Amino acid sequence: MVKSNRKDPEYDFEEFRKACRKKQNTVFILPKAQKDAGDFFNLRTRTQLLDFISNHGLEELKFINKKKWEKNPDKQNVVMVDAYEFRSRFKLGYIAVYSDESGH
Fold it and tell me: What distance in Å separates the CA atoms of residue 87 and residue 70, rounded to the nearest whole number?
């Protein structure tokens, strides 16, 4: 398991989980994340992945850290990313969450 630094998350994960259920059009999934979800967890569609998150499929969710978004195209707009690890059955997974209101 990844060691957690003790900083608090930037975002409320429960709000993200709710958005995955009720505001799916506001949740953006990076193509690599969708591919990995399919390859490792058999979550082949966007709907399957969002349902998995919203229905507490991320077992033993543990905050790792937060840091600035490294690939942010707008260097004037600081965006923080929260990283988590989780389990699903016997598999270890990783999820990163950020909120970018500039639309990137």
Answer: 25
